[in-house]
Amino acid sequence: MDEKFLLKIAFIVSSIGVIGLFFLTANSQLPLNQFVEDVSVDETVSFVGTVIEVSDTGKVLFLTVEQDKTVKVVAFKDETINRLMPGDKITVIGTLTEYQGEKEIIADSITLD
After folding, report:
1. CATH assignment of 32-112?
2. What is the pLDDT of residues 88-110, one digit of tens each?
3. Most buried of 2, 7, 22, 29, CB within 10 angstroms?
């Protein structure tokens, strides 16, 4: 076969693979019970869950969010966070930390689904 033809085929197959991986990773999320147990402290995590409890201290909200298990989420208030109520489905992106022996997430962003 011609080298140029093989190069074109390799490029097309590689491009399809990269695009496929992009869509696969964009639509995948770790279940909550996996990342709390498997992800190291100070790693960024992302998940979708339901707000179970909201505790407002003025500048900071403490959320209990449930997916398969519950996890504590610490969030600094903004417009979206001010409206959160139990039962809301949210997407959380944040950093997994440990405080007084318990894992919790310091939220970088919370979006209402």
Report:
1. 2.40.50.140
2. 999 888 999 998 988 899 999 88
3. 29
